[in-house]
Amino acid sequence: MVKKFIDPGHGGIDPGAVGNGLVEKELTLTIAKMIRDILVNEYQDVEVKLSREGDQTLSLNERTDMANEWGADFLLSVHINATNGKANGYEDFIYPGSGDATTAHQNVIHEEIMKQVDFYDRGKKQGNLHMLRESNMPALLTENGFIDNPSDAAKLRRHAYLERIAQGHVNGFVRAFNLKEKAPKPPMWDGSEFKEGQIGRISILKRINLWKRDENNNLTFVRVLQPGDRYRVYGYDNLYGGQYNVGGGNWITKMEGYIKYETPSKAMMKKAAEFYK
Ligand SMILES: [Zn+2]
User: Fold this and answer.
1) Which of 12, 39, 138, 142 is a good FRET partner for 253, with 20 to 30 A between their CA atoms?
2) Where is the MurNAc-LAA domain (predicted)?
3) Which residues surround ligand 1, an ion (CB under 5 A)?
């Protein structure tokens, strides 16, 4: 079991940076909870503790004490930046002179976050910051855009963008700590050709649960599917408000706005490769 401590910056009487109608303490909490939920729901043997789950006031000492007492093996502190509206972009910090392991974690997490977002890349930095200095474990502090920069703020206002930020952190954790997925996904469809028995395809628009049915049609949660993924569909029935069979005993519930189901015409099915390019 690995133990990851995630610290949503600020909180309570300390709003952190404020700008363009956004408040840092709210964004950091949203992102931190997203990171926790993805890690705990989708990966094996990960324990996550947040320094706060609501709008509490916490001193910096209380935060690092909590991580040290819990015995975390990694600390992540999530922040949003601010200056005077002119600067923009993403950057992260480790403590100056941190060892090779911490530097390697920063390299990987930075790279994975930059793959998910289109923030300007301000680089991998070092800083003598309390959260990095007073924690007993490798620690990283991320500054996810500038709240007082109109262009960054427009991104931070979008829930889907906060999800990209969270997913970037998660992908970094997965590589840095070699995390293993909880259950395999059904095979993704590359759009090339229809398989025997396939009646259509599903594109995932928002995170949605994948379910397994047993012989009595009882559901067991398998995992969460990612936006952008596509799967072959082999059947549909009306159980549980309507579910699509995506093979291997796996089912996805019909949910407006979460998936897009398409049944191409026969002629199109023949030309599926071109149709889905
Ligand atoms: Zn901050």
Assistant:
1) 39
2) 64-174
3) 9, 16, 79
